[in-house]
From TrEMBL:
Leader peptide range in chain numbering: 1-22
Family annotation (InterPro entries): DsrEFH-like
Record keyword Signal present: yes
Keywords tagged on the record: Signal
Organism: Zeaxanthinibacter enoshimensis
Protein name from the UniProt record: DsrE/DsrF/DsrH-like protein
Length: 137
């Protein structure tokens, strides 16, 4: 009888003390800083893969465009497929206002889907401070 009680206590202790795996509900946010518009294709494919892999844990995904090729954002023919895919994947394309000014690109000539921030590099750091995973290409 004593053995039965000890066995029962051990069994209950084992059951009650076994670690329960907590469900990871952490939302993952991403920011990519790029200087070249053609890099949008692999960036958007990455966003799509992460969205499929993470499901509800996939959060915000922003692509910041800075540098001398910022004017390429105004090329409607080149940008249309990227903008359509970005919308489908929930990706925000952001233009660096500093680069727009430096390379004399009128922000009014950008597609309406492109968000403009004053300083793309600063915006990237601010997002990193909020916990975004960051990559610069």
């Amino acid at each position: 009888m004593k053995t039965l009680y000890i066995s029962l206590i051990l069994a209950l202790t084992t059951l009650l003390s076994s670690p329960v795996k907590a469900q990871d509900n952490t939302v993952h946010n991403y920011v990519v800083l790029t200087k070249k518009i053609p890099q949008l294709k692999p960036i958007l494919l990455t966003a799509q893969a992460l969205r499929e892999e993470e499901g509800t844990r996939f959060g915000d995904f922003q692509v910041i465009v800075c540098g001398q090729h910022i004017g390429d954002l105004t090329d409607k023919e080149q940008m249309t497929p990227f903008l359509q895919e970005a919308e489908a994947q929930g990706v925000t394309i952001v233009a660096c206002g500093f680069s727009l000014k430096k390379f004399k690109v009128d922000a009014g000539s950008l597609p309406r889907e492109v968000k403009v921030v004053d300083n793309g590099i600063l915006h990237n750091f601010q997002l990193q401070n909020k916990g975004y995973k960051s990559l610069s290409l």
